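Inverse folding, one chain.
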């Protein structure tokens, strides 16, 4: 689908490294004990926010964390945030512009793991008796007794493990459907139950609907009271289908720090601040491999790590990693779709960095190198905009008519000022005005659709204006590359998740 040319307004981004020299020592490292604040014996829970520590105070090597960031920079991984928590303390916290600490980030399929946690809460409260309950018990309105079909015997466990016996692609949804689950259960389920893993977002959608049926409440409203409020999670959004049911397979937005709370809840076997929010057995069952798949196995909506531990996994780099043997929780948000990059960084650098259950000697040189690397990668300081070049002056304020059929933008005009570029467009839905920073600062535009887009740009060649473009609402990152040739312009769009570039549109000056 051709993308709108959205050019945007910005706010200065505060990227906090998260390394504090203090005495938050925790003699731990083997499991699920909550953080011991300052080594005083007083337990602290991060309900109101994470306490910070140097990596060495938590037995981690700052040097390896620096090496990890340098590799990410070298490979141009499109990171949005990276958090490392050991023994309950934030030892690395980085937000990459334009993403910020308080921004709720698209979870994509990490929603599945969080929805599974809500399911566990409902089981803990007795609304759901057993994972062996029949799915048909919850959906009498759907035809589940089709001949030569296994739906009538399908259990909640089959939904949780994505072993429903479905044939074909279960993830094709009609966005105009009044009832996506009715469409789903009308598909064929002929493979023997429990024998084959088929990735299935509609199975997760059905689990959310089960929660709603069992509790008599909207899943999100139930989750806000029973799970998110105890964890101190407030900045969260969860989309619904056309019947008002929250999607179990996606559609959630949450801040990285709150994602880490979900991981920390599981690290502590469902215990939070003296209350057992999830049954410990539920956590164990959820994070144990029940079925093999194309990766390393699947639990109850949680994936197994390659080497040890488990993770929630959202498309293009959304991850909640938990490594109980190292008392680690790692959160990544990104726009990356290349060869399990995040898992590789975890295994190559983060887990090996956790060298000791006891504090390591402080190393100011290594710590400063780590903080320096974070500052470099998260730089959002104002920088003087270069003087406008000849091309910028010649096209500034001139109207270009887009000649590419089907592209949503029909006309555009760029006006280059000292520190920003103002872009006026005529699109299929009317006229719009967008902004782009030329001074290293992103500008934001909030579109009528609710989409928030942030951009900054620079002239990378005499005739080429390159824009860093982020659809923050959905966590998507692109480069918009405008190449001018006299009275003509060609727009290329680079998908930063796979680093592929395609021609999007061409245009020419006109009245």
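Residues assigned per position:
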């Amino acid at each position: 689908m051709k993308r709108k040319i959205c050019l945007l307004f910005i706010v200065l981004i505060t990227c906090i490294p998260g390394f504090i020299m203090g005495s938050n020592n925790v003699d731990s490292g083997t499991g699920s004990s909550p953080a011991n604040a300052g080594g005083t014996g007083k337990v602290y829970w991060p309900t109101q926010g994470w306490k910070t520590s140097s990596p060495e105070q938590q037995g981690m090597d700052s040097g390896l964390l620096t090496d990890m960031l340098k590799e990410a920079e070298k490979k141009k991984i499109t990171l949005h945030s990276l958090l490392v928590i050991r023994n309950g303390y934030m030892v690395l916290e980085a937000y990459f512009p334009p993403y910020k600490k308080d921004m709720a980030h698209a979870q994509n399929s990490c929603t599945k793991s969080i929805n599974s946690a809500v399911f566990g809460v409902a089981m803990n409260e007795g609304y759901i008796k057993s994972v062996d309950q029949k799915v048909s018990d919850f959906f009498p309105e759907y035809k589940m007794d089709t001949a030569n079909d296994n739906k009538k015997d399908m259990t909640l466990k089959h939904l949780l493990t994505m072993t429903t016996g479905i044939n074909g692609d279960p993830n094709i949804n009609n966005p105009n459907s009044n009832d996506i689950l009715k469409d789903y259960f009308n598909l064929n389920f002929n493979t023997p139950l429990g024998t084959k893993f088929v990735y299935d977002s509609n199975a997760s959608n059905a689990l959310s609907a089960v929660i709603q049926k069992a509790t008599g409440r909207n899943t999100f409203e139930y989750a806000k009271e029973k799970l998110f409020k105890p964890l101190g999670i407030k900045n969260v959004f969860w989309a619904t289908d056309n019947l008002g049911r929250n999607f179990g397979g996606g559609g959630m937005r949450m801040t990285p720090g709150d994602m880490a709370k979900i991981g920390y809840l599981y690290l502590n076997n469902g215990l939070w601040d003296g209350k057992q929010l999830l049954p410990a057995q539920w956590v164990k069952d959820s994070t144990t491999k029940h079925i093999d798949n194309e990766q390393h196995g699947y639990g109850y909506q949680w994936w197994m790590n390659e080497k040890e531990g488990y993770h929630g996994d959202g498309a293009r780099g959304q991850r909640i990693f938990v490594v109980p043997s190292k008392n680690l929780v790692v959160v990544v948000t990104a726009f990356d779709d290349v060869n399990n990059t995040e898992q590789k960084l975890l295994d190559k650098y983060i887990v090996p960095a956790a060298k000791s259950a006891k504090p390591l000697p402080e190393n100011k040189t290594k710590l400063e190198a780590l903080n320096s690397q974070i500052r470099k990668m998260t730089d959002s300081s104002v920088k003087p905009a270069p003087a406008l070049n000849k091309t910028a002056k010649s096209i500034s304020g001139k109207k270009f008519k887009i000649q590419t059929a089907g592209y949503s933008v029909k006309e555009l005009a760029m006006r280059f000022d000292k520190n920003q570029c103002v872009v006026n467009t005529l699109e299929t839905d009317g006229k719009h005005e967008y902004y782009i920073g030329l001074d290293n600062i992103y500008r934001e535009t909030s579109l009528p659709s609710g989409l928030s887009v942030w951009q900054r740009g620079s002239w990378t060649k005499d005739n080429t204006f390159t824009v860093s473009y982020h659809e923050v609402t959905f966590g998507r990152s692109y480069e918009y590359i405008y190449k001018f040739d006299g009275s003509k312009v060609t727009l290329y769009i680079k998908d930063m998740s796979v680093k592929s570039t395609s021609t999007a549109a061409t245009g020419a000056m006109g009245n």
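The domain at 110-253 is CATH 3.40.710.10 (Beta-lactamase). The mean pLDDT is 92.
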